[in-house]
Design brief:
- The protein is of the alpha/beta class.
- It is 20% helix and 24% strand.
- It is built from 9 helices and 16 strands.
- Helix 4 (58-67) crosses helix 5, helix 4 packs parallel to helix 9 and helix 8 (290-299) packs across helix 9.
- The longest helix is centred in the C-terminal third of the chain and has 18 residues, at 321-338.
């Protein structure tokens, strides 16, 4: 019998990865010169004077993001065209050469300050590819230039929770640059030790598409060949099947059979609210609906992933009214649906078995420092939750103590019907940081959750019923 899953059990998150996972839902402000040229990508030749957002108000961005239920914002500080949204000392292709605020503006500072004002996390996006910089393709001179930009961003704007390195580059690019990723990572670790390095980095894994398609099972411990090491190297990736764009299973026992090296590499799903990333007036009728956002939320945040939603302010620096209405309504729905928890102090929780002092009552506080752990020798441990009276609900939210890994593979939720029999209402697989179980509305006094498959042991740290 293959026991590769036991090797996977050794993969555990860093503190920065845990804090990133707690962010759950955040925005990516996509802004730059392409907004003013009605394009999706700049070419590095558009005049810096084109940048002129006459009504820029980053407080309004944060206010809307917070109303939508987001906990942070990431700003596209430098996109592919090389234009910098802060007055860097290392290139004139930046806001200091624009007419906006007479060249004295700093959009990175404004966004970072607004995030702090609203109690939100701030992150920086920066493209490795640079279509304007003359040293691009020269090797070390460009690495020096890029590290200088990173140093400015990570020393002049306060704490950041995420450094999003966009490694995409046109296949037609003639100036090939071999990035010194190990050097970049080392610098980020020195200057922003609490920040995860995402996408082209060792901390957070891209889901594999920009359409919101997710895996049915999302595992954070995955084979090492899916990731990047701290020195910027990676292991040879297995060949894909013909026509396969995104492997749909990278963590199950079947998928990891015969693997021995694993890393903790949690999933981030990123996609724009509109059809395109940069603002386009024609996109307003392609904005995702409130119902579509809720489905995305369930399939990402509710499936052991984080959701980064692209927001695209217009030329004036404002987020369109349609986007604002949808995001505000969506945030109200989230607050209403997940704002309470009927697993309160009066609910009585019993467990089939207990390991040590990890009693089932611990799952009421939803903290990783305390959890319920059944006796590892029990084949199908379970908990029952009994309320003082019959309660209506349609969502059950489970959380594992991921600081000690991810272990649950299968579980079933039952409710006690009027005939005194437990009837199944939901069958699930992975849990990880969070699993949202959406069911048809029911009303009952007793609920049972049975865990029928797991990797040696598991620790349940949270239970929420809405």
């Amino acid at each position: 019998m293959d026991r590769s899953y036991q090797y996977a059990n050794f993969a555990k998150p860093s503190l920065r990865q845990i804090e990133w996972q707690k962010t759950e839902f955040y925005g990516l402000i996509y802004y730059g010169l392409p907004v003013f040229t009605s394009a999706q990508y700049g070419g590095g030749f558009t005049s810096a004077s084109t940048f002129w957002p006459e009504a820029m108000d980053t407080d309004s961005w944060c206010d809307l993001a917070q109303k939508a239920g987001m906990k942070g914002l990431v700003l596209t500080c430098k996109h592919y065209d090389g234009f910098c949204l802060w007055p860097t000392a290392f290139t004139d292709y930046s806001v200091k050469s624009s007419n906006w605020m007479d060249g004295a503006g700093d959009l990175v500072r404004m966004t970072a300050d607004s995030c702090r004002k609203f109690g939100m996390k701030f992150g920086v996006y920066i493209s490795l590819w640079d279509m304007h910089e003359k040293t691009y393709g020269s090797g070390k001179p460009y690495d020096d230039f890029f590290c200088n930009l990173l140093t400015e961003l990570l020393t002049g704007y306060g704490d950041v929770f995420c450094v999003w390195l966009d490694g995409i580059c046109s296949s037609a690019e003639t100036r090939e640059q071999k990035y010194d990723l190990g050097r970049y990572y080392k610098l980020i670790r020195e200057l922003a030790p609490n920040a995860v390095i995402s996408f082209m980095g060792p901390d957070v894994r891209w889901s594999g598409n920009e359409s919101g398609v997710t895996r049915a099972e999302e595992w954070s411990p995955v084979p090492a060949h899916y990731g990047i090491y701290e020195d910027g190297t990676s292991e040879p990736a297995p060949s894909k099947k013909a026509g396969e764009r995104m492997p749909l299973d990278i963590g199950s026992r079947k998928a990891i059979k015969h693997e021995e090296k694993f890393i903790w590499y949690p999933c981030e799903v990123s996609l724009p609210l509109r059809k395109h990333w940069f603002f386009n007036e024609d996109d307003k009728y392609a904005t995702k609906t409130k119902d579509k956002l809720l489905k995305l939320y369930y399939e990402t945040v509710g499936n052991n992933s984080c959701l980064m939603l692209g927001l695209s302010p217009n030329k004036r620096g404002e987020i369109d009214e349609i986007d604002t209405q949808i995001l505000t309504a969506f945030g109200k729905d989230l607050a209403m649906m997940f704002g309470g928890n009927i697993v309160n102090e009066t609910a009585h929780i019993k467990a089939s078995t207990v390991s040590g002092n990890h009693i089932p009552e611990h799952i009421k506080n939803d903290e990783m420092t305390s959890f319920w752990q059944p006796d590892p020798s029990e084949k199908a441990p379970y908990i029952t939750v009994t309320f003082e009276k019959e309660e209506p609900f349609d969502k059950i939210v489970l959380s594992e103590n991921i600081s000690n890994g991810q272990h649950i593979e299968e579980f079933t939720v039952y409710y006690l019907n009027e005939k005194g029999k437990f009837k199944p209402v939901y069958q699930g697989t992975t849990v990880g940081y969070k699993r949202i179980c959406s069911i048809k509305p029911i009303k009952c006094k007793t609920l049972k959750i049975e865990f029928t498959k797991f990797r040696d042991f598991f620790e349940l740290s949270g239970l929420q019923i809405n």
